[in-house]
Amino acid sequence: MLNTSRDVVTARQAVAREMKARGTNTIRITRFATAVSEIARNAIMHGGGGELFVFLDRSKTYLIVRCRDRGPGIEDMDRAMPDGYTSANGLGLGLGGAKRLSHGFDVTTTVGEGTIVTMSAKL
Amino acid sequence: MAGVTTIHLVERALLVSIQDDVTDTEIIDLQDQLSHRISEEEVRGVVLDISALEIVDTFVGRVIAQLAGISRLLDAETYVVGMRPAVAVTLVELGMYLPETRTALSLTHALTQLRRA
Amino acid sequence: MPQTATTNILAILEADFNGIIEEWLGTQVSEGVKRSDLFSDSESRSQNAELLKAFSKGVRAGVVDAEFDLEDTAWEDLRAVLADVTKERVNRGVTPTEMATFVLALKSPLFSRLEAMLSDDPSSLIQEVMLVTRLVDAFAIYTNEVFIEERELIIERQREEMMELSTPVVELWDRVLTLPLIGTLDSARAQEVMENLLQTILERQAEVVILDITGVGTVDTQVAQHLLRAAAAVRLMGAECIISGISPMIAQTMVQLGIDVGTVSTRSSIRTALADALKTVGYVITKTRDH
Q1: How many domains does chain C have?
Q2: Kindly report the CA angle at B92 between C186 and C157, in degrees rounded to 5?
């Protein structure tokens, strides 16, 4: 559950712990946990809160994080991705940055219904 | 809140060590608190020890950059010390170079540089 | 028909197992593919025996007809032995031709025995020969696949080893590190170099890092980006970064490409960079006598 800024910390720590337990190297962990932190915060700040799921892929070689919010959605994805885009008091490195720090990255957004971000990291 | 982050005043420098589980709200509070202390206690420098941080994302990075800007306006230098290699790589990848912030390997290094200044 | 075919081969294999091995070895010698320099006689003999044993087992269990398929479980043992033998041979430096000929050499002893057995039944003989050919050819192809896979593994391993070799972080003096970059700097290598460098900064508490690019052939926008990012990460950790070894050519290219190095210090030679670095950590180089 993502509601407060404490939940962002909990989410990224859970992801880091999960990867550490599977012996992933530190840099990979930091990169992905940072990406998760960005996305979880987005869900709270812009999506009015949401849920975050952590699971493994079938071959157990990737950690997958899915973050869903019920916010307004992103109207123009092409504009939201590049660095520099910012909606409300952001620096504009969030989405694009999170994508660069992930192995796989996918955003599904429906205006008025919410946004689902699915991201993965190699273990 | 005050329990997770410790602040000490040494040689007119504020030594701040930030804990790993710091939240966005807490770090904003910290920025506010530090801004006041810099101006009230005639501090020459702020040393942020982030060696405990496994993650610095754009939010925390931005607060640090702002703190550097604020302290410069109040005639103090901000040093970030003890950044982990993985954090440095990630910040660079995020495009956050923190140009306004001074950096040092450790608290001792930062204090030496502050003394010299 | 296929059923009898299998029976005949089985009979041959059982009647003269050791004879076939000796002749197989003999063919390898006459074909010039028996590498006595790499394998001792007894090693070769036991390898061949093992292969032939696995082969008989496959023939006994496998359906050897039009449906013949080496991927079938009946051939599991043979595949395993073939793979082992191949891997070992690759690692000892056997060539692909030698490897294929080694397997194909099994045909000759089998053919001669079939001929003797079925001399009065030419049509069966042809059937048998075709069958053996198909079998042995399939082994040879399989061997080749294993061979290529193993080679690729070796290449990958060597690439990794080279990558490590080519990015040594050297401690020039207390708290002064240098990283002499040589060759091309692609993204994967740049990442590796950076991680390695940052880790060493932490371990040695280095204050100055010299990234020497004397050995880097060309600097395009991408390479420059990598260098500047490495420099930025070094600075974030609290150390100073100097890029040295910028040749006039590289300087020209960088300006033409519009690369802005920003606040990163650059030097033309590692000499001046070293002098600066030592000064930063509190040393000077003094000349003690004239030549």
Answers
A1: 2
A2: 35
- Whether residue A6 lies within 8 A of chain B, CB to CB, comes out as yes
Structure tokens, A11 = 């989410």
In a domain, C285, yes or no: no
Does a structural domain hold residue C13?
yes
Please report, as a single letter, which amino acid is at residue A7: D
For residue C202, pLDDT over 90 is answered with yes
Q: Which of C163, C187, C215 is the last residue of a domain?
A: C163
Tell whether the torsion through CA atoms of B13, B14, B19 and B21 is positive or negative. Answer: negative
Stated as kind and residue range, the H or E segment containing C265 is strand C265-266
Domain CATH code at residue C10? 1.10.490.10
C265 is in which domain, residue-wise?
Answer: 170-280
Instruction: Report residue C264 as tokens.
Output: 């990163």
pLDDT, tens digit (0-9, with 9 covering 90-100), for A34-75: 999 999 998 998 888 899 999 998 888 899 999 999 888 887
Spatial contact of A23 and A36, defined as CB atoms under 8 Å apart: no
Q: For chain B, say whether A34 makes contact (Cβ under 8 Å).
A: yes
**Is the complex ipTM higher than 0.95?**
no
Residue B71 has pLDDT above 70, yes or no: yes
**CATH fold of B6-116:** Transcription Regulator spoIIAA (3.30.750)
The answer to whether A67 and A43 are in contact (CB under 8 A) is yes
Nearest beta carbon to residue A34 from set B21, B26, B55: B55
What confidence tens digit (pLDDT) does each residue in A14-28 have? 999 999 999 999 999
Residues 6+ apart with CB under 8 A from C89: C38, C98, C99, C102, C147
**Sorting pLDDT into bands at 50, 70 and 90, what band is C63?**
low
* Residues in chain A closer than 8 A to B61 (CB atoms): 91
